Amino acid sequence: MSAIDTLPPLRDVIAQHGLSARKALGQNFLLDLNLTSKIARAAGDLTGADVLEIGPGPGGLTRGLLAEGARHVLAVEKDARCLPALDEIAQAYPGRLTVLNADALQIDPLAHLTPPIKVVANLPYNVGTELLIRWLTPANWPPAWDSLTLMFQREVAERIVAQPGSKAYGRLALLAQWRCDARMVMHLPPSAFTPPPKVSSAVVHITALPEPRYPADPAILERLVAKAFNQRRKMLRAALKGLAPDLEDRLIAAGIQPTDRAETVGLEQFCALARSLQP
Prior knowledge:
By secondary structure, this protein is of the alpha/beta class. The chain contains 11 helices and 9 strands. The chain has helices spanning 10-17, 33-42, 60-67, 83-92, 128-136, 154-161, 171-179, 218-230, 236-239, 247-253, 267-276, and strands at residues 29-30, 50-54, 72-76, 97-100, 117-122, 147-153, 180-188, 193-194, 201-208. The strands form 2 sheets. Strands 4-3-2-5-6-9-7 form a 7-stranded mixed β-sheet. Strands 1-8 form a two-stranded antiparallel sheet. Strand 5, helix 5 and strand 6 (147-153) form a beta-alpha-beta unit. Helix 2 (33-42) crosses helix 3 and helix 8 (218-230) packs across helix 11. The longest helix is centred in the last third of the chain and has 13 residues, at 218-230. The model has no long low-confidence stretch (mean pLDDT 94).
């Protein structure tokens, strides 16, 4: 028996169902149920919330979420081999787990959930960043979700919480911190996973703010930031060339020197520049 419920240990589940992790699906299974419960607790109080989990695999984190009291878990799993193991969890927690055999990039899982909604996932490495950007850039704000508690490669996690002046600072930090609070809450070594990945991992907790920190048009800000960091070694007067005929004046008005590089410019200044570029 495992420490958190009456289901078998995950190693036994994986052996029983022949669930070897597939590199093509970005799979690395986290087998320590104490760790998966710790990740679930990092998401805060789950008792009154619906939880979206992407890539549950054999269900280690799924069990953690249910054991920590999640009202309902929607698990989206692309790998059909994992469905029998997840079905056993659904039977152990009647009425509280729904499993969708689908590609998370091809559906809108939030449509299947009732607010308040928390997203908690050990994201497959190959789709993690794309999913995060989608969650950070919905058509309307505030978003359907209250918080995101997500595991990434440590390098990606550092990019989300990075501050100006650091090598990790860039588009991801600005997108996350413009409308959210983001902080790193856990570090996990490669040895925590089966098979062990070549990199360390980290869990980031992101909470949606009711309003952006500074006013700006989302489309203009995203385009501006992407252009600025696409050539991050260039001075901004060169990297942003063509955005406006009087670009240098607009940069100065936003508190940015034309000779500054993107990695030294803060969120408030980028938002000021985005406002000045609005038609």
